[in-house]
Protein 1
Amino acid sequence: MGDIAVVGIGPGAAKQCTPEADAAIGRATVVAGYTTYIALLEGRLDGKRLIATGMMREIERCHAAVDAAMQGERVAVVCSGDAGIYGMASLVLESAEGKGLDISIFPGITAACSGAALLGAPLSHDFCTISLSDLLTPQDLIDKRVRAAAMGDFCIVIYNPMSKSRRDKLSRACDILLETLRPDTVCGWTKNIGRDGEQSKILPLSELRDEEVDMFTTVFIGNSQTRAIDGRMVTPRGYENKTHQSRH
Amino acid sequence: MGDIAVVGIGPGAAKQCTPEADAAIGRATVVAGYTTYIALLEGRLDGKRLIATGMMREIERCHAAVDAAMQGERVAVVCSGDAGIYGMASLVLESAEGKGLDISIFPGITAACSGAALLGAPLSHDFCTISLSDLLTPQDLIDKRVRAAAMGDFCIVIYNPMSKSRRDKLSRACDILLETLRPDTVCGWTKNIGRDGEQSKILPLSELRDEEVDMFTTVFIGNSQTRAIDGRMVTPRGYENKTHQSRH
C-alpha cells in the first residue's frame, strides 16, 4: 500500500517552503493539487504523475489521491499556505477514513503569517481567522463569527474576502464590525504574497469597506490597540504599560 | 546603519525552518533570542555575537538588538514558531519607532500549524488563538475572549496554557467553555513539537480540564463539528453536506 503526504508549500516561493515539505514532494510519485499551485512547483515535479484539478474540485482530487495511494503510489497532496488551515488535510483524512493508509501532514506558512510579516506585526496578540466564503458555511454563521470576533476585541484575518459570484462579502463583514469597532481601527491587506504582483496596503476600517479585493487577497483587521508605526501595522503584545514587565 | 531581521524559526528542527529564515540568520552578525531557542540553533551561529536572555526579558533583548543595529550590526532577532504570532516582531517595531532602521520580518511555522499537523486537521475551519498568559493581558479580557470564541463556534488554539506561577489557567478556560460547549467536544494537545519528547493526545473537553500541561504545550479545542477519525482530530471544512460541492 502507498501513502499520502498532505503538504503545505507556503505562499508559493521556494524560499518560504520548509525543507521537510520540499522533501515530501520530492519523495512522491504522484502529486495532486489545484492547478494554480501545481504551477508554482514548476521544476520540482519531473517524472511525477500529476492530478491537477481546478478550484471547487477538492473532493474529486481527494478521492483520486486516496485511490492512487491504495494502488501503491506515494502521493503528495499540495496546498498553498498551510496543509490544515483552509487546506486539504481534513478532506484527505475524511476521504481515507478506515482505509488504513499512512497519512502525514506537513505544515506550511499560512497567509495569516506571511501576510502579517509583509504588513508588520498585526497578529502579536490573540486573533481569529474567518473565511468569508459561503460555499461550505451558512452566511448566518459567518456573520455570527464576525460579530463574536469584534466582541472579543480579537485581531481578525479574513481569508477568501470575495468569491467569483459575490463581491459584497467584505463590505458586509465591515458593516458588522463597524457596529462595534471604531471607524479608524487600523486595517491592512496583502495580495500575491511572495509572487509576482505582491502588494500590501494599510488603511482604516471605514475605507476597507469599499476596497477592491480578489481571491488572492488576505485582509487584516486590528484590535483596539493596533496602530501604524513607521508605515507598518503593529498590534502591541501587551494591554498594560510595558514597564509592568520589569516587575518579573 | 545596520538592519534587523525578525525571524520565525518554526518549532525548532531545521527541517521546519524556511530557507529564507535560515538565510536571514546566516547573514546576521548578531543574533538575539530567548536562551532556549538560541540553543536550538546550535551549529548555525559560529562567529556571531549572541544576545541571549531568559524569559520575560523581551524588552531588554529588543533594546539591545536595536542598539546593535544602530551601531551598524546586521541583527537577527529569533523567535520560536512565527516571528509575529506571540513573537517579537511587534516589540522590535515599537522599539525601533522613528529610528529609520531597515526592519524585515520572516514568518515561521507557528504552533497552531505544527501542532495541528501532529494531531490531524483540527483547524480546517475558522479558529481563534488565545494566550492564557496574564502577564500582559488582564484576566477579564482573557475570559471575555474565551467566551466570545465559544459563542462563535470557533476552533480554539491555546498558547501558554500555564505560567510558572499559576497552574489553574487551563481549567479556568475549560470551565468557561463548558458553559456553552458539549463536554464531549473533541480536544487535543501537543508538546515539544519537532523536538525530543514530542507528544500529543486527543481527549474530550471534560477531561482536558484536569490535564497536566506545561509552557511547551499547545492546546486545541474543536468546534461543534470536530470529530476523531482513525485516531486523528479532524474539523471538517464544510458545515453543509459534502455533496453540496458537486453543484459547482
Protein 2
Amino acid sequence: MDNLSMLEKYADLILKKGINLQPNQNVILKSNTDAMDLNRLIVKRAYELGAFHVYVDIGDDEISRLHLSLAPEEALEKFYTYKIDGFTQMLKEDAALISIACPNIDLFKDISPLRLGKSNKASAIAGKEFGSIISNQDVCWTIASYVTDEWARKVFPDLELSYAKEKLWEKVYEATRVNLKDPIKAWDEQSSSLLNRCAKLNEHNFKYLEYTSSTCNLKIELVENHVWLGGSGKNKNGVEFIPNIPTEEVFTVNDKFGIDGSVKSTKPLNLSGVMVTNFSFDFKDGRIVDFSAETGYEVLKNYLDIDEGARYIGEVALVPFDSPISKTNMIFENTLFDENASCHLAFGRAYPSCIKGGDKMSEDALSEAHVNRSLTHIDFMIGSDDLSIFGIEQDGKKIEVFKKGNWAF
Amino acid sequence: MDNLSMLEKYADLILKKGINLQPNQNVILKSNTDAMDLNRLIVKRAYELGAFHVYVDIGDDEISRLHLSLAPEEALEKFYTYKIDGFTQMLKEDAALISIACPNIDLFKDISPLRLGKSNKASAIAGKEFGSIISNQDVCWTIASYVTDEWARKVFPDLELSYAKEKLWEKVYEATRVNLKDPIKAWDEQSSSLLNRCAKLNEHNFKYLEYTSSTCNLKIELVENHVWLGGSGKNKNGVEFIPNIPTEEVFTVNDKFGIDGSVKSTKPLNLSGVMVTNFSFDFKDGRIVDFSAETGYEVLKNYLDIDEGARYIGEVALVPFDSPISKTNMIFENTLFDENASCHLAFGRAYPSCIKGGDKMSEDALSEAHVNRSLTHIDFMIGSDDLSIFGIEQDGKKIEVFKKGNWAF
C-alpha cells in the first residue's frame, strides 16, 4: 500500500476514532505547513464523512521562530486573541478539535528562555478557557503526529532523509495500528483493554502508590474519589473519543500536596523546541523543592515558574515497559509516542475528569479537593525496566501493581 | 542576483512602499501555502523594520476547493466569523494589511456557480465592515502577487515549469520595478508622476467622459466633487501607501446612474477561479441592462446578482496602452497586472475617497451622492489601441484625454 493510502487510513482513524466525528459537526484542524498532504486528506475525508465546516488553522515553524526571535519583547505578551477566542466559542458549541503535531525538536533552541517563558505564559493565560474545555473533556479532541523532516532526522540521524521519513512513517503506522487490516477495530479492542485495566484499578481504590527503581523513590497520594481513565474518553454529551493517537496509558490524578521523594527522568523532554535531558525533581508535600537538569535547565525553570501549580504534579500515568510502542525498540523523541512507552507524571494541571463528578466542579471546589489547577501541563517519563509499584488500599492492604516495569496483575 | 535576494527586495518594497510600515505597528499578512518563502521573508523583514506583531493567515487553495465542492450547502453561508471580525478589529486599531495574491486561475472551474455565488455573497456580507475600512483607505494596505505553478503554466504553457516560473518572476520584477537598482526611489518617482496626472484631471473637473473605440461606445458621467486618485493613497492618519503593486492607473468614481452605451471586454476576467471571456455589457441609466459572455456566463451572472449595486459601475480607471506593463507585451492573466495595462471599469463598490470628503460621509450620504455602495468590486478591462476619450468640462468644453489608447496630454 502506498503512503497516500496509508495516510488516508491515518486520516480516517483520526476522524472516526480520534474525534469520532458526528454528522453536521464543526471541526477545528490545527496543523502546520509541513503536513499539507495530511491536512488536505483530513479535510476531504471529514466532509465525505459528514462534517459541517472544517476550520483549518495552518501554522508555520519558521514564522513562529521568527516571531519568537525578532518581535519586540512586549509583543510576546500582548497580542490579539481573536483566534483562541474564536476556537473557544466553537468548542462551546460542540465543535471537535484535531491537532496535528509536527515535531521540530530543536526549533527554538536559539531563543532565549526568558522570551520563550514570556510567550508561553501569555499563551497559557489567553488560552485558559480553551485549555479547560479540553482538559475537562467537554468536547471530542485528538492529537496525532506527522512525520516531519526534522523529526525523521532526529530519530534516524544516519539515514538518508527520504529513507528516514519512510522508515519513521512505518513506525508511526505500526504504533498507531494503521498498518493493521482494520485499524478501527484494533482501536476498539485497545480501548476495551485499557478500560478493563482502569476498572480493576478503580476497584482497588488505592490511597497511595509507592514507586521504587534505580531512578525513582516516590510515595504518591491519590486524590479521594480519583478515577483511572485511559483509551477513549467521553465528552459532556457522552460521545467517545481518543485524545491521543497512539495511547497506551491509564492515568489518574494525585493529591497535589501528597508527593514525597525524588525521581530522575528516564527520557529526554522537549520543551518549546529545547531538549531538557537527565533532569530530576525532589518533592516535599507535593512541591518540587529542588531540581536539576543536564541540559535545558533554564527552559525547565521557566516552565516550573509559569504559576504556583506548575511546581506540583497533576497527572499519574501507568504504561507497561513492554507496550507496543516500547517494543518498536526506539526513542521517538516525541512525547506523544514516548509517553506511551513509559510510566510518566505531569507537572501542572490535572484532568478534572479524573475525580468523580470533577467535570461539574468549580475551580474552587477542585482546588479544595487538592486537584492541581495550573495553566500548564507537561508530561515527563519515569518508567524503567526495574520499576516496581505497590498500591496501598484505603485499609492499608498492599498490592503489587508493577513488577520489573510491567503490570503485575 | 539570485531569486532569494530579489524576493527580499520584493518583500522590502511591499513593506516600505506598499504598507509603509510604521514603528511598532501590527501587520496582518494574508497569504497562501504556495508563497511560504515570500511569507517568511515578509515576516522577517517586518520585524527587522520595527513591526510590533505580524499576524499571518495562511490559506490553502486545495482546502478552499475541497470546502467549496464538498461542504454542505448551508455551510457555505453559515460560518464563524472570528477571523474577519478579528482582522476588522485590528484594522480599526491601525494595523496594516498585506495580501499576497497567489493566482490559480482554474481552481474553482468545477465548482457549481450557484455554490460559488452563495459562498462569495456570504463572505462579502461577513466582511462588510472590513471591506469598507479597506475601500475607505482608513488604513494602509497593499496587494502584491506571487508566482505560482498554476500562474506560470497559464502564462507560459509551452515552457518547462521551472523555466516558466523563472521567466514570470523576471516579468513580475520588471513590472514592479524590483529589477531596478533602487526600487524604492523608482516607486517614489512613479507615485509623483501619477499624482501629477491626477492633479491635471482634477483641474479639468470633467462632467462626462466619452469613450469610443472598436469595442466601446460609452458616455460616463462623473460624480460631482469627484477626485482622481492614483499611485499612493493616504490613510486616515495621512500615512502614504500603495494599495496595488504594481500600479499604473489613475481612477475616480462615476455617477452610479450616469452611464449609457455598451462595452466589450478586451481581456478575459478571472472570477473565483472561473475564466469569463469575451463578455459585454449594455448600460442604461447606469444599470447593466443586458450582458453576454463567451465562457463563464453563469459565474458572471452570480456576481452581478450579489446585490443591487453589483449591476452598476463604481470605478473608472485610465491606463495608457503603452504602460510599462503593456510594454512587457504579455497577458499576465492576473487582474493586478492586467488592469495596470489597460483602461478599465469596475462594477460594484466605489472608493469613497474618490469624492471630496467621502471618507467622512455616511453610507446614506454616499448613496445620495450616487456613489455605488455594493458589497462587491470587480475590475474589467476595456482598453485598446484605438481607444479615444474626450472629457467634457462643466461648461461644455471638450478636451481630448486619450488618443489611440494613450494620454493625449
